[in-house]
Every structure is written in structure tokens, then in C-alpha cells.
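Q: What would this chain look like folded?
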Amino acid sequence: MILHRYFAQRFAMTFAGVLGVFIVMLTLLDLIDQLRSFSADASFREVLSLTLLSAPQALYRMLPLIMILTTIALFLNLARTSELVVTRAAGRSALRALLAPLAVALVIGILGVAVMNPIVAATSKEYDRRVDGLRGVSSVLRISSDGFWLRQGSAERQSVIRAVATNVDGTQLSGVTFITFEDGPIRRIEAARATLTDGAWEMTDVKIWPLGDTPNPEAVAETHASFTVPSTLTPDQIRDSFGTPSSIAIWDLPGFINRLETAGFAARRHLMWFHSELAQPLFLVAMVLIAAGFTMRHQRGGRTGLMVLLAILLSFGLYFLRNFTAVLGENGQLPVALAAWAPPLVGIGLSLGLLLHLEDG
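A: My prediction, written as C-alpha cells:
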């Protein structure tokens, strides 16, 4: 138990050191990038706040790389001081010596998903909001429990659109209500269906109420079999307004996915992200096992640089495999659960086989 605590403490301290180095490097590099992008539109204080808001997301994405380097640094240091040799001489196998680092990596992964993920979602959402404010753009879509809402218009006139259901890209609406504002509401339109064409909404089964100074809008309401309303929206704008799944906290993702599916949108992208986040702790465990398989050896055996290179290359290979299967999962070519959970399980299985081979021959 004392040895496990010692290895756990060494691993945690090494992780903290590597994480600190990455925090400094990423913050400085991102500050330079933000200055290049927004120095003409924002003060240095605003640019610095943008840098601090984007830093958590960058660190969270690089967590697997940080875990790889932590494991390599730990076991190279233990091998240099011959502590691994003493551990094996005391009767501890390589797998038993790995239990404490694996437990710490698993805890870091769980804390990352449970705590860091919501922080990243909040900071990235605030970052996007501020960047959109500097660039003069904003999201045009909101999903709620009673349907979804769109916003369109110009500087003089704005329209709010509510629909009960839609197709997968938000261009065909059912149960539609348009309310147009110009220093107050001036018109309400209800339609059974609305289809977004090039520069306009084509509506069917329409009823229109003027809301300006009319004392009784119902008395002057008009009905039309079809009606056209000009629009500045495009299908790409609607799709982009969903934002990235990483901007939604993992605790809120199931409800958001349910609202998307209820509104008629495809939610495979968000579902894939949800399962990938749940599999993140196991993926970090796989990173530790892969790095340990190549570095839990005495340095007198030679080829230390080659072993470190192989560990990094294999870890990056597993990382790209996870991204590749994620794309297949989002496109529907693989089941979401298989695409999310297979890469970490494959990495754990292969690395355990390597460790058993090195340990028992």
C-alpha cells in the first residue's frame, strides 16, 4: 500500500508539472494569436480575457497528450533512479506497479468529464459570444422544449420564427409562427408549413394579423393559400447556429439531444460527442498503458529514445483512430457506442498484451 501511494503521488506530481508547462505555453501562444486577430477591434484587456476563456478548451483537448508525456516522464525517471529495478526485485510485477498510476489517470479522467467538461462548455460558449460580438454576428437558432426558434432580419426590421417541428437542416418548418418587429410588433403570421428557398420563406395555409395601430387585428386578418416572406437566412447559417457539442455541458447533453430529436433534427453528432466524453477516462487509461509498455524498462537496455518515439507514435495513432471512428459514428456508418468505446478498449487490450509479453516473455 505504501508503494502504491508513492507511485500515485509521483504520477500526480509529474502530471501537475507537465500540465503547468502546457498552461504557460498554450496561454502565451493563444495570446499572440488573439492579438493578431482582434488587436484592431479590442483592447489588450479584452484580448487577454478571450485568451483565458479559450485556454480551458485547448487544455482539455490536449489532455491525452499530457497524459502520455506524464507517463513517459515518470517511468523514465523511475528507471534512471533504478526504482523500477528495486520494485521488481521486491516481487512486484509491472502490472501491479501500474495500478496506482492507472487509478490516478482514471480519477483525472472522471474529474475531467464531470468538472472540467462543464467549465470548458461555459468558457467556450462565452468565448464564442464575445467573438461574435466583435465580428458583429450572432446565432439565429435556439432549441427549447416547445419547439425551436429562429431569428432573421435587418437593422430596421426583425422577425422571430417559432416552429413546432422541422426537417434535419431546419429549412422545412411545420406549425410556424412569424412575428415581425419594427419599434414594436407590426405583424403576425401563422402557417401550416414554411420552406426556405433562395432568399424567401414559401408558406402554405397562411393567416396574417396586422399588429401596428389596428384596434382589432382579428377583424382585419387575412388568409392565403400561399404567401412569401423575404428572408436573409441560409441553410448553412441555420446548421452553424447549433454550435459545437463541446459548448454544451455533459450534464445538459441528454436533454439537449432529446429536444433536438423532438424538433426533428438529427442528433448523431451530439450523441457521438456524449459517448466520446463518457469514454474519455478509459482513453486516458489506454494512454498510460501504451506509454508504460515502452518505457517501463531499465535504461541500460538501450534504445530509450526509440522506445519513447514508438510510444508517442502509437498513442497518436490511437488518438487519430478515435477521431476517425468518431467521424464514422457521426455519419451513421458505425453505431455510436461502437465508434466511441472501441478505440479506448482496443488501446487497453493491445497495451496489456504488450506488457504481459514483456513481463512474462
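The CA atoms of residues 254 and 274 lie 8 Å apart.
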